[in-house]
Write a structure and sequence with these properties.
Urease, subunit C, domain 1, TIM Barrel, 2 domains, 4-stranded parallel β-sheet, 14 helices
């Protein structure tokens, strides 16, 4: 099977079944079989701890899992740039794609200081006085985008273990440059998905938000956590074996000022010993870790490819699910019940890149297919299409930072359109308005509306007609970050 051949036909699976692990429990779900004869889905009545649990009206120890935990804090996303509060920028005659769901329209946009002051209509001479003016000439003005699965400190290594090898000083500079590359490519919001060293994300976040360096608004993570036997990359993992271990780790991260923590809850095919369908986190550690994090106001994200790991996320309150490849009928129903609380960032570019681009770095297509990536991609794409059909929020974030998925090659939105069947507007809203929601500032980030932060892109063309425009930074004629011209 070629990596691009991902359109699953009803009842047909084209991957080689011999690439499934011997202990695989995955069965084709309804959205793949699409048979006329449907049997009712059997839903679990208890969670993995043996406690009663209703996946369609889910709660865990009194916490409603259909809405965000009220203990979660709203992160500070303000960037300090003294001296720019009184600046003004005007965009004239632009095609305004405001990410509110409305159709684009022609008009002017005024930025005053760090925020958008006026949207639509024609600006007056008085409003234009003293402003730096960009003539749009019908080009598209849209919000900056989000990467919801960001690793500034992934070093473009050709191996997993290589992520741990760079010395701290050089690693800090590398992470700084990665942050700048995201911004250069139009990503004005990033959510850290794990840091190769405990404080790297935090140092870069603080430098950006203090105005010391240029980069996206950023929510920092720490080292990913896993039991030693379940670590995908031991050199960048904090080992936790007991409930006290994970509580201590979470509390230390919260005290540092880290925004969210990550549990590595399933395997990864490239390791060949921990398969994607292997679940690596005991239920009691997931439950204890989520409770500790939420008690500190922190969210939890999870590397969860196996169906069991996805269900653990839903039973105990994980907030952001990464990958979600091998999801079953019952788990999909449970995820749909929590779609107002949970988002999925599948990082399918890692699967696609490993199949299509890794051969140049010594990992041939035959190897990628043999370890299961062609199988996983086909199954994941079918599941993501079903999630989208059900209104579950899918956000971009491609696990960039390996040799064949290097920083600066961000192309998730074209995958969303070409692989998942999203309309270009849907893909753009997932990267903008949903990004503002994930950053927990839905009225200040991800939309072109008065009062929102002025994080804007002037695109040379119309991404609703050609979504690939957003995969190439040369198509971004102007980038505004926090009301300041980054490019233009």
């Amino acid at each position: 099977m070629g990596a691009a051949d991902d359109d699953t036909q009803p009842g047909m699976l084209r991957f080689n079944p011999d690439t499934a692990p011997p202990n695989s429990r995955w069965m084709p779900p309804k959205w793949i079989k699409k048979s006329a004869e449907e049997t009712p889905t059997a839903h679990p009545t208890h969670n993995g701890l043996g406690e009663e649990w209703d996946p369609l009206c889910p709660k865990f120890r009194g916490i409603d899992l259909t809405n965000p935990d009220p203990r979660l804090r709203i992160p500070n996303v303000e960037i300090s740039e003294p001296g720019t509060e009184n600046s003004a920028i005007a965009f004239l005659n632009v095609n305004i794609l405001d990410s509110t769901g409305s159709a684009p329209y022609i008009g002017d946009v005024l930025v005053e200081g760090h925020r958008i002051a006026k949207v639509g209509g024609q600006l007056s001479a008085e409003e234009l006085h003293g402003a730096r003016i960009f003539e749009g000439k019908g080009r598209t003005l849209m919000s900056g985008m989000i990467d919801a699965h960001t690793h500034f400190s992934w070093t473009n290594s050709p191996s997993l273990d290589g992520l741990a090898e760079m010395p701290t000083e050089e690693h800090t500079i590398f992470a700084l440059k990665s942050a700048q590359k995201f911004l250069d490519c139009g990503y004005t919001m990033c959510v850290g998905a794990a840091s190769a060293k405990e404080r790297l994300d935090l140092v870069i976040k603080n430098a950006i938000h203090n105005g010391d360096i240029v980069g996206p608004r950023f929510l920092a993570n720490g080292k990913e956590m896993a039991p030693a036997a379940g670590a995908l990359i031991p050199g960048i993992t904090r080992f936790i074996e007991t409930k006290q271990d994970i509580k201590t780790a979470v509390n230390e991260m919260a005290a540092m000022g880290i925004d969210q923590c990550k549990f590595s809850m399933s395997g990864e095919e490239i390791t060949e010993n921990l398969r994607a369908e292997d679940t690596t986190f005991p239920d009691e550690l997931v439950a204890a870790g989520v409770e500790a994090a939420h008690s500190c106001g922190m969210r939890v994200c999870s590397h969860a490819r196996s169906d069991e790991a996805i269900m653990q996320c839903l039973q105990y309150g994980v907030d952001i699910i990464y990958h979600a490849s091998f999801i079953s009928d019952a788990t999909m129903d449970a995820l749909e019940a929590q779609k107002n609380r949970v988002v999925v960032a599948p990082a399918i570019n890692w699967l696609i890149g490993t199949l299509e681009d890794a051969a140049a770095f010594g990992y041939p297509v035959s190897k990628a297919e043999a370890v299961g990536y062609a199988r996983e991609l086909e199954i994941a794409v079918a599941g993501l299409k079903e999630m989208h059909r059900r209104g579950i929020k899918i956000l971009p974030g491609g696990d960039y930072g390996f040799a064949w998925t290097p920083h600066g090659t961000y192309r998730d939105l074209e995958h969303f359109v070409n692989r998942l069947g999203m309309k270009p507007m849907e893909a753009i809203i997932s990267a903008s308005a949903y990004g503002g929601e994930l950053m927990r500032h839905p009225n200040e980030l991800g939309k072109i509306i008065p009062g929102a932060y002025a994080d804007l892109l002037l695109v040379n063309g119309n991404p609703l007609e050609d979504i690939t425009l957003l995969s190439h930074k040369e198509n971004l004629d102007v980038i505004i970050m926090n009301g300041r011209v980054h490019k233009g």
